[in-house]
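Reopening this one. Same input as before:
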Amino acid sequence: MRMSDSSVISSMKLLGGKFGEQPIQRQIRLLLIFFAVALVAKGGAVLRGFAVDDYAFGQGFNKGELGVFLTQGRFLLGALDWGIDSLGVNINDLYISLGLCALLLQAALVVAILRFVGAANAPGAALIGSAMVIHPYLSEILTFRMVLPGYCVAAALSIVALEAASSKSSGLRKHIICMLATLGMLFVYQGFLNYFAVAIIFAFLFEAFSVTKYAKAPRESARSRNYVVLAIICALSALMFLAILATFKRVGFIEPTGRSKFISLHEIPERVAQVWALFQNVFWKNEPITPHWLKLVIGLPVVIGIAVLFQRFTKIFRSGSTLHLLGIALAVALLIPATVGVIVPFKDWYPVARVLPQIPVILGLIILLSAPFLKSILNGWIFRISTAMIAFTVFAFILINNQIFADQQRVNGWDRMEANRIVSRLEQRPDFLKVQFVYVGGGSWRHSARMSMIQGDMNISAFSPEYSKVPLLVEVSGYNFKKASGDQNAVGEAYCAKAAPWPDVEAVTVVDGLAIICLAQ
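Same output, byte for byte:
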């Protein structure tokens, strides 16, 4: 038996209704559910762990690290970390308090997005929102403990901006708050702009699919202004950010990296191919943190939702205005670049999981948007199957997240035990006390023993990147080693070109106060 049109309309009003139409207690309950699920899935974030970048910050925050942040336009992040370091506190060592804070803010950010688009009180929001909060793509960033201070501040600013934009109050004050929060977020961590883009698109789609002659729901001008205002504020903030970055470059204050330089016109075809390859990898191909078969489980409710929305669109097509139809088509088209996010137009192309946190939000909102229409099909049995698959996905995500943090502990242990053996070999050299500088040649991103959750630079060995090798030795030994440079590197390279790699006896030597360590590639 099919649901009546009035039931569908009622569900659509619930999805697109104003925030005050349901008790605020339900949304607080939603926040607590998301936070509890995040703790179960990502509790490992509050344990001491090191990603490769963390080793560079192990001995404090110096001008080198500050320079990296400045070249990326993360001025407020640099100031924040410098301020913490000036207290004698290492940003790597705040993992308990800031780990909990980050999990709570991840949960609160998803609630803020659901509120903004009008789906916070929708049936199924708790289950689908939980999947959005604990998607493994959102876990990689938490394995980098040095990111936690900036992540918490950027997430908090994003929530403030979304709440200000969706506020029912009128006047200039809420727009100023939204603008300042958005601009502040950009100077901390620009990746949160991806959430804004998705929220804007879906706020329009939630309204568009309910504000039709078919659904007979009244247009909510207040909600229309909300996503239009946020879109304008995001555009203005991005322009101000880029203008400030360009000004600082012109006066010689910074030299932007590829992360803040736009691709040229002749690079566009290559970027289109890269985006297509990314879509295949994210939505279809096997990868460690979301295997192919799990993508099929996740994808089926999404595909069903898209099919239902397309069927609904055909009815809108027969009854809606041309402008309305064009708006829906444009919003759907914009989901393609929004899926990839802010990395699309910039030279550095490194689409690791931590720069794609908007993907689970997109998938979840598609399901929530289609849910009231899906419930009217075939007596709701397809809806129940989709719900079961989403529940299984949440369970799978919990297991995967736990494995991500367990594997980080595992690779940290392997790295440190190998580093200790290398330092022990160095200590046996008669001229060890003269060692001040260390050259480490070679090094692999993994150990020979199997480990599941390695993807991009998540959970790779610290013996792989140049910037983490020597800091790893310092972290495990307490010796104040310094990284070799200039002619010392040439000496080290020449020696390792002839010597057998570790653990061979020739792999570790000392030459004129320079320790040389030769690792296998």
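So the earlier flakiness isn't reproducible anymore. For the record, The chain has a mean pLDDT of 88.
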